[in-house]
Amino acid sequence: MRILIRYFFRTLRTVLTPFLLLGDKLTTPKSIERDPADQARVDAETSELALYQFPACPFCVKVRRAMKRLALNIELRNAQHAGEHRDALIEGGGKAQVPCLRIAQPDGSVEWMYESGDIIRYLEDRFGEEASQSAS
To answer: Between vectors from CA 70 to CA 94 and to CA 20, what angle results, nearest 5°?
Structure first.
């Protein structure tokens, strides 16, 4: 019975993945506009961030949409299959759960943030329009 359930969900995921990715592409949000100087500052700050994600994970899609809306150039690292990024996620964050935002602090320490809602809240607080206005 367990194998039947596993194959059912694997088939369901295979069928729904193209629709999820197509829907994401067709409904991409518009990015916020910043001055070139502000965008350069944001780009410099986001160079210390990396998002570990799976391409078809709905929670990862939610975070990527927030990144697009906030005009953030955060490196995307696909941790779906065994390899360098998955190993780094497990070693650094402690589990193979996505989405996970890797935040390199100026002092050299690294924070691993899980949960899409927490990641989006962090990005909006740090790079949202209100944060941009207070940085000016």
So the answer is: 65
* Radius of gyration of the chain measured on its C-alpha atoms: 17
What CA–CA distance (Å, rounded) separates 52 from 95?
11
- Residue range 85-93: mean pLDDT, rounded: 95
Instruction: Tally Cβ neighbours within 10 Å of residue 20.
Output: 15
Average of per-residue pLDDT across 55-66: 94
The per-residue DSSP string of 28-92 comes to PPPPPP--HHHHHHHHHHHTTEEEEE-TT-HHHHHHHHHHHHTT--PEEEE-SSSSHHHHHHHHH
pLDDT at 26: 86
Cα 39 to chain centroid, rounded: 19
Whether the Cβ atoms of residue 21 and residue 56 lie closer than 8 Å to each other: yes
Per-residue model confidence (pLDDT) at position 25: 85
Residue 61 CA to residue 26 CA, distance in Å, equals 13
Position 28 scores a pLDDT of 84
